[in-house]
Specification:
Elements (H helix, E strand, L loop, with lengths): L4 E3 L8 H5 L6 H6 L12 E2 L8 E10 L5 H9 L4 E6 L11 H9 L4 E4 L6 H4 L6 E3 L13 E3 L3 E3 L2 E3 L4 E5 L2 E5 L4 H24 L5 H9 L11
Parallel strand pairs: 1-7, 3-4, 4-5, 5-6
Antiparallel strand pairs: 2-6, 3-7, 3-10, 8-9, 10-11
């Protein structure tokens, strides 16, 4: 087996209705229910026009050599409706990984979005294409097509490990990775959290939010609160 230069054609996928259930749940709520540890780094940000609801889908993972998109091209030939292409680029920022032609072809295949640990180009076209693209910036410099690389293997992107078939959620705040096995139990938690968070927001709007927990927490942690000026 050619370790480092191989393509797995199959993945284990979660039920489509489970994936879709995360469509209108804020990524921040999901993050809070996952120990605040599953959000991608802020360098991976939305580069396209926001759409109604979240970007949601299942991960089709790509491990690419820095500045090379040969395996990304192969992944686009494999895309199924509802897939989100997640590409690890080893943090390289020198070459764009995708442009207008690739993004347009992927849209014709039903791609649900992209999460790329590197730049893109042709942003003036891709911005309004209707396909969510999260990336690390833009550059006109194009990629090479030499390989090696791998598809449908665990990858690291934005500080997270992503396995093929994991659920990916993206909104204006950024991207969350939900391990496929954890998704059913997590969904119940985030639904309850979202409901409680909406109540807190309503109280904040009305000015009735309870804030006594702040001083209580400070005192418990040993903070001294002094009713005087600093001399």
């Amino acid at each position: 087996m050619s370790v480092g230069f191989r393509v797995y054609l199959k993945r284990i996928l979660p039920p489509k209705e489970l994936v879709e259930a995360f469509r209108f749940i804020p990524a921040s709520n999901i993050s809070d229910c996952m120990g605040r540890l599953s959000g991608m780094g802020s360098e991976i940000r939305l580069m396209t026009r926001p759409t109604e609801g979240n970007m949601v889908g299942t991960a089709l993972t790509v491990k690419a050599r820095p500045g090379d998109n040969l395996l990304l091209h192969k992944a686009l030939n494999m895309v199924m409706p509802g897939d989100i292409v997640v590409l690890s680029n080893e943090g390289d920022r020198s070459q764009s990984l995708m442009g207008a032609i690739m993004a347009t072809f992927a849209k014709s295949r039903g791609v649900a979005g992209f999460v790329l640990d590197g730049p893109i180009r042709d942003i003036g076209y891709i911005y309004d294409l209707g396909v969510p693209v999260y990336a690390a910036g833009t550059t006109p410099a194009g990629p090479w097509k030499e390989g090696p690389g791998e598809i449908n293997v665990p990858v690291s992107c934005g500080g997270n490990v992503i396995n093929p078939g994991d659920i990916i959620v993206g909104d204006l705040d950024g991207v969350i990775v939900i391990p496929r096995e954890d998704a059913p139990s997590l969904l119940e938690s985030v639904r309850s959290f979202k409901e409680n968070d909406e109540k807190k927001l309503e109280a904040a709007e009305k000015g009735t939010a309870k804030r006594d927990w702040v001083d209580k927490s400070l005192l418990e942690k040993g903070c001294e609160i002094i009713d005087d000026i600093c001399r």
